[in-house]
Structure formats: structure tokens, C-alpha cells
Specification:
The complex is a heterodimer of chains A (219) and B (114).
Chain A lengths: L16 H19 L14 H10 L11 E6 L1 E3 L9 E5 L6 E12 L7 E10 L5 E11 L3 E7 L1 H4 L6 E12 L2 E2 L9 E2 L7 E8 L4 H6 L1
Antiparallel strand pairs in A: 1-11, 2-3, 3-8, 4-7, 4-10, 4-11, 5-6, 5-8, 8-9
Chain B lengths: L11 E3 L2 E3 H4 L5 E3 L2 E3 L2 E3 L16 H11 L10 E14 L5 E16 L1
Antiparallel strand pairs in B: 1-5, 2-4, 3-6, 6-7
The chains are: A alpha+beta (219), B mainly beta (114).
């Protein structure tokens, strides 16, 4: 308390500058957590490599903002069950637990090695664990990749919804195209870049649900 | 709205820049590096009641004078935000996803008397 001086707004004692600063910092923390609908700050145990982060953010449209209280999410894949050719791989994503937001656009970003032979036929399946570890898979899309480098593959938002746990598994199955037929066996050399700063990632665009949207669907 | 000088008694906007490094949050808030946490503070004598700070028009100035000469003050008036803008944040969530979102009404741009 500063002796003698009075708060111009409430007439109470004013705070000393250091005390006011401490109050402001606490206010800032509360305001940001409330604004992000978080109860506490996130504990980051496995931050994405800065190079992968920079590469991914450079891919997104600069300045693009999801409309009306929307969100844009970049989720990096962890690669499991990668075959030696690393072209028929299982990508696992840990998406944010769904809030009252509606997914309206999804793209899978892959980096094709320059050494890949000609055009690749790539099928993307959503893999869902079912009974006794036998999984079932749903085809989400099929793409012909004819250029090396980054590829943005659009996925149907409806195919990605609904996983309460937030864990999403995508199975890639790609083969070189010979003429207009796919080669019989999987390719021998690495075609997709799965490591380092060229890791695959999902780009998702969400928008806040209009109030009552769920009711309209039920009706 | 005037920015508060140390001894400004009337309704004004008090500016505070908060650096996320100072909060120890630079590990999960990627952009921006900080933001202006401003708030409104100061007295609202009755002749300023209803004056929206910088947006005051001639009409509201005359209206204020009429009120100031009114011997029967009615109620009190408070120094409140009259203009706010959103803050765009890029941050890591607890699953290390990168999230970009706009938080509405985060930064007070103008204050005025209710």
C-alpha cells in the first residue's frame, strides 16, 4: 500500500507498483485460460521438433483464420507399423478432445521423396480397432501422387469424426503406377518421408457449433 | 479514452503489457510473445455518465452539461470498457497439437463511463 495515495476509482488504498504488477500477471493467466477454455496450462511432455513445427506452419495459409470463433489444428503423426518401403504405414494422431466445435475441413500433408518412381497410387484408410484386435478399415480417399515434395490430400471431415478418445489411425497403402495399373507388390525403396521435419501432419479446421445445431439434426 | 497518467482521477485506460516469458508460458504459447492486458479505472462523475470515452459526440457533451447542472443525481456511473478486440493465439495443447484460435474481447481498447 502506498501511504496517503488513494485509488482514483474506488477510493481504496492504491497498490505499490510491484504488487499491482503481480496482480496483473495473475489476471493475465486467468484471462488466457478462460479464453482458451482450459482449467490449467497444458503440460507439454513431447513438444514437436521445432523444424517440423516451422515446416508445418509454413505450409498453412498465412493469415487464414477459421471463421467465427473457429480453430485451426495441426496434429503431427506418430508412425507405427511402418513397412520397409515406408509407404504402407500406419499413422497415429492424438487429436484434441472434441469440444463444441464442428470439423469442416481436413487435409493430410505428406512429403514424397524426390527419388520416388513416377506416379504413386495412394489409398488412405481409417483404421478402427474392433473386437479382439481385429481392426476394420474404411477407405477415406484415393490419390495419384505424381510430383515429389509436399502433398496436401483432402479427407472427408465426416470420415474423421466420432473418435471420443481423440486417437485417430490412418493406414496408407501406396504403390507405384505402371501405365495405369498399380504394381503388384509394395515398392522396395522408401517413397514417403516419415521422419524428421518432413513428418506427416493433419491440418484440421473447426468452427464453433451454431447453438441448437444438434437439436436440428435430431429433428 | 486517455491512457491513465499516474494521478489521473477520471475514467481512463490503464495499459499493461504482459510478456508470456514473464508468465513462464513461452513453452506452450508459440505466438504472439505477449499481449496488452489493459483495464479501465478512474472516477465517473455524473456529468461524464454515459460518455463513451473517445466516441463522445457534441450531443453527449451537451447532455453531460445538462446532467452536471441537475441537482438530483440519479445512481452512480462506472468506468467500463467500451471497445475491445480479439487476440489470435497459436499454442500447443496437452497432446502437443498446434492450435490456432481467436479469443474474443481479450484486449480493452477504449474505456468510458456507464
Amino acid at each position: 500500500r502506498r501511504a496517503g495515495s488513494e485509488c482514483p476509482a474506488c477510493g481504496g488504498p492504491t497498490l505499490a507498483p510491484q504488487a499491482e504488477r503481480a496482480v496483473v500477471l495473475e489476471l493475465a493467466k486467468q484471462q488466457i485460460l478462460e479464453g482458451l477454455h482450459l482449467t490449467s496450462r497444458p503440460r507439454i511432455t513431447h513438444p514437436p521438433p521445432p523444424a517440423a513445427l516451422t515446416t508445418a506452419l509454413r505450409r498453412l495459409q498465412p493469415g487464414s483464420v477459421a471463421p467465427g470463433n473457429g480453430e485451426e489444428i495441426v496434429s503431427f503423426a506418430t508412425v507405427t507399423d511402418s513397412s520397409p518401403a515406408a509407404c504402407s504405414s500406419m499413422l497415429t494422431f492424438h487429436l484434441p478432445t472434441p469440444r463444441s466445435h464442428h470439423l469442416y475441413r481436413a487435409r493430410l500433408w505428406l512429403h514424397v521423396f524426390p527419388t520416388s518412381p513416377g506416379t504413386l497410387n495412394l489409398k488412405i484408410f481409417r483404421w478402427s480397432p474392433r473386437r479382439r484386435h481385429r481392426g476394420s478399415r474404411t477407405l477415406l480417399g484415393e490419390h495419384q501422387l505424381s510430383l515429389p515434395g509436399w502433398q496436401a490430400l483432402t479427407l472427408p471431415p465426416s470420415g474423421l469424426r466420432g473418435e471420443r478418445s481423440g486417437v485417430l489411425k490412418l493406414q496408407l497403402d501406396c504403390r507405384p503406377l505402371k501405365g495405369n495399373r498399380t504394381a503388384a507388390g509394395p515398392p522396395r525403396q522408401r517413397l514417403l518421408d516419415m521422419a524428421g521435419h518432413q513428418r506427416p501432419f493433419l491440418e484440421l479446421k473447426m468452427r464453433a457449433n451454431e447453438p441448437g445445431a444438434g437439436r436440428a439434426r435430431r429433428r | 479514452t486517455p491512457t491513465c497518467e499516474p494521478e489521473t482521477p477520471l475514467c481512463c485506460r490503464r495499459d499493461h503489457y504482459v510478456d508470456f516469458q514473464e508468465l513462464g508460458w513461452r513453452d506452450w504459447i508459440l505466438q504472439p510473445e505477449g499481449y496488452h492486458l489493459n483495464y479501465c479505472s478512474g472516477q465517473c462523475p455524473l456529468h461524464l455518465a454515459g460518455s463513451p470515452g473517445i466516441a463522445a459526440s457534441f450531443h453527449s457533451a451537451v447532455f453531460s452539461l445538462l446532467k452536471a447542472n441537475n441537482p438530483w443525481p440519479a445512481g452512480t456511473s462506472c468506468c467500463v470498457p467500451t471497445a475491445r478486440r480479439s487476440l489470435s493465439l497459436l499454442y500447443l495443447d496437452h497432446k502437443s497439437n498446434v492450435v490456432k484460435t481467436d479469443v474474443p474481447d481479450m484486449v480493452v481498447e477504449a474505456c468510458g463511463c456507464s
